[in-house]
Amino acid sequence: MFSRISHIWRGLHAYRYLVWQLVRTNLIGSYKKSFIGMAWMFILPILAVAVWVVLHGAGIVDPGDTDDVPYPVYVLLSTSIWGFFIDLYRTVSQVMVNSGRLLVMKDFPKEVLVAEKVLEHLINFAIPLVVNIIVLIAFGIRFHWTALWFIPSLIPLLLLGLSIGMFIAVIRVVAVDFATIVDEGLKLVMFLTPIVYTSRIQVSWLAEVVTWNPLTYLIGFSRDLLTKGIYTDVGPYLICSGASLVIFFLVLIFFQMTSGRVLERLTIV
Residue 66 pLDDT more than 80? Predict the structure, then answer.
């Protein structure tokens, strides 16, 4: 296993210039035809949060006790962290369908396209993160030194989103219906994760689901680090992080072993 992972790493290092060129081209192309360009990175998260703030203000949504963290801050940061996970899944899960023919025409490691999507995703996440920091400061949130661990604490969530994305990227070519089920299922998972409400909820069955949902800890741990400066649910977070790492290595090997056959399927379709 380690020799295969080492081989993948050497391939990515050899094609690092191609990775950066693809990132640059895609980022420029994404906003080139837009009048306001990258300003959408600021506008979209604010609009998304505005919906939940209005629902909360109207009494339709009861998020529970947010521990002195204003609800707009809570939901903005929570949805941003969720977006960090789900947006990576979406882009990576489409990589074989959207870019597979490029791999057929040009001979380079398949992991290059995945690495390009990850880097592009991290750059796109940087701007919403700045928006979050500004909003936190505006609402009087005082940062502790533990907030410095916020970015590293997102690594397990990144690995999990990347793992699911790579697995579905392969499956999407040979079993579209299954991939669609996962796409729609993850939309439901958002509402089974304490993002627009807290983990302390009164609905018993939902509280049980939240307790067993690994995203509860992967998202909640990072959120509390930034807003409260405290470590919460350290044990479950470490268990979920370790599981994410193991899953990532297994899926990475699966992707590397099967993507070649999937490319053959793309040339037939």
Answer: no
CA distance from start to end of the chain: 32
The CA distance from 263 to 14, in Å, is 22
Q: Give the confidence band of 152 by pLDDT, cuts at 50, 70, 90.
A: very high
| Cα–Cα distance measured from residue 95 to residue 118, given in angstroms and rounded to the nearest whole number | 11
Pairwise CA distance, residues 172 & 97, whole Å: 8
**Alpha-carbon gap, residue 15 to 10, rounded angstroms:** 9
85 has pLDDT over 90: yes
Question: pLDDT at position 133, please?
Answer: 85
Give the relative orientation of helices 234-268 and 95-105 as an angle to the nearest 10 degrees. Answer: 50
Q: Which two tokens stand for residue 238?
A: 């470490």
pLDDT digits over 9-59, tens only? 665 666 666 667 776 776 666 666 555 555 666 666 667 667 666 665 655
DSSP code string of the chain: -HHHHHHHHHHHHHTHHHHHHHHHHHHHHHHHT-SSGGGHHHHHHHHHHHHHHHHHHTTS------TT--HHHHHHHHHHHHHHHHHHHHHHHTHHHHHHHHHHHS-S-THHHHHHHHHHHHHHHHHHHHHHHHHHHHTTPPPPGGGGGHHHHTHHHHHHHHHHHHHHHHHHHH-HHHHHHHHHHHHHHHHTSTTSS-S--S-HHHHHHHHH-HHHHHHHHHHHHHHT----SHHHHHHHHHHHHHHHHHHHHHHHHHHHHHHHHHHH-
Rounded-to-integer distance, Cα 38 and Cα 47, Å: 15
**With bands split at pLDDT 50, 70 and 90, how would you rate the model's confidence at 103?**
low
CB 119 within 8 A of CB 63: no
